[in-house]
Structures are given as structure tokens and as C-alpha cells.
User: Fold this.
Amino acid sequence: MKNSKRKSDCPINFGLELFGDRWTFLIVRDLMFKGKHYFGEFVNSEEKIATNLLSDRLSMLESENMIFRSKDKNHKQKIIYKLTKKGIDLMPVLIEIIMWSALYDEKSAVDMNFVKMVNEDKEGLIKELTAHLISS
Amino acid sequence: MKNSKRKSDCPINFGLELFGDRWTFLIVRDLMFKGKHYFGEFVNSEEKIATNLLSDRLSMLESENMIFRSKDKNHKQKIIYKLTKKGIDLMPVLIEIIMWSALYDEKSAVDMNFVKMVNEDKEGLIKELTAHLISS
Assistant:
């Protein structure tokens, strides 16, 4: 997103211009909650993102400093993707989507233990998961 | 969204298949935070949604029971749109997007009073705004 192209300065629009696309969100989900780090892992997610869309969204997320890529320590030829602090800070948004879906989707695959943990101590859970993502 | 077409039962994917489109989110924003209720008001929002997209997203939101339409009491020929409880319950998602944008968008038009209120008492604010939307 180039600032000059912004449709408005509304804070909701700002967020949506960056990640307001389901594929972008699903990549962030994979990095945040599913421990996925490789192109091939994102491709294999249940929702079956097309590889051209995946490449495009990874480039966008990287250029917006929401993820970064590096060479995998164990497999030098492999590129590993991780969330930056800016990307990790989307966690409350994703958690609220999970909580809403838990309420309204009777077929949801949501982990009820996770819902319970959020209800008991949302802030604590976010801190713990954030610290884990930053250190890993 | 037909359940048979779902790409996965992941709770994040569930949410995104319903509202994971920036235009859908911006309509919910207009109804939730901008006091807009009419087709013409959504059209006039800063982001300039095309009327065909707007019609499509309003139909989708209505069929998913996130908004409902009725005849305006004062102008019988006008259709008024309001959020259902299911739609209003997206408020925490939108608030977290606002908070993230307030953190990362140096040009943000975010109302710093709103940010302060969220930081002081998020649950109280959500309850108050929800009650207002339900009663209005």
C-alpha cells in the first residue's frame, strides 16, 4: 500500500488496506497460531491458497514490515518466514475473530480450551503467545 | 456463504469467509461507528464504494443475518439498514483494528480520545456502544 493511494485516513480503512484480504489474514494465522514458517506449509493449508496469490501476499506483508524472511539455519537453501512485532500485534484482531466465530458458527473447529483461556485472561494469553513468537 | 462451500472449519476462516473483504468491513464500520443507515450514506463514504459492490455486500450481510433492513418510519419510501446483534458483536474485531492502526499508522485519523477510552475500559466501552446500537 502506498500512502498516496490511500482511500481515507480512517484507522479501520488503514488496517483493511494492509490486511483486509482473507488470504493475507490466513497467512498471518498460519504464522501466528499454526507454527508454519515455509512457503510449502502455507500452500498446504486447508484453504488451498494458489501459489501466485501466496507469493503476492508474502511480498506485500514483507514490504509492509509485517513479516520478514531469512535463510533457515538448518536448511540453508530454504527461506523461513516469521512475523515481525507489527505482525504479531495483529493477534488481538485474530483472537476477536476466533471469539466471534465461536459464538456464531455451530460447526466451528474452534478449540474450546482456547476460548476458555481467552475468557479467563485475554491479556495474559496475548502476552504469553507474543513472547513465544518473539523468542522463537 | 453456503456451509457446503466452506474451505475449512477454522474459526478464523469462518469469520473471513463472512466479512473478510474490506468493503464488507467498511459497511459494518459505517453502521457501527458513523451512524450511517442509508444506501446513499454508504455510497458517500470517503472510500467510494461502487454501487454494485455495495448492493452485493448489503445482500450478503442481510442473508447472513448481520444486518436487517426495514422501512424508515419517517420516510416510508426509504430503506433503513441496521446491524443485528450478530453484526454488533463484531465490535471487538473493529476496535482491535483501530488500536493496531493507531499504533502503526503515523497518518492515522484515529480519534485519540477513543483510543484512551479503549485503553481505560474496553469492556465498558463495548457494552455502552452495544446498548446504544441495540436501542437506536
User: Anything to note?
Assistant: The radius of gyration of chain A is 16 Å. Chain A has seven helices and two strands. The helical segments of chain A are 11-19, 22-33, 39-43, 51-63, 85-88, 91-104, 112-135. Chain A has two domains: 7-84, 90-136.
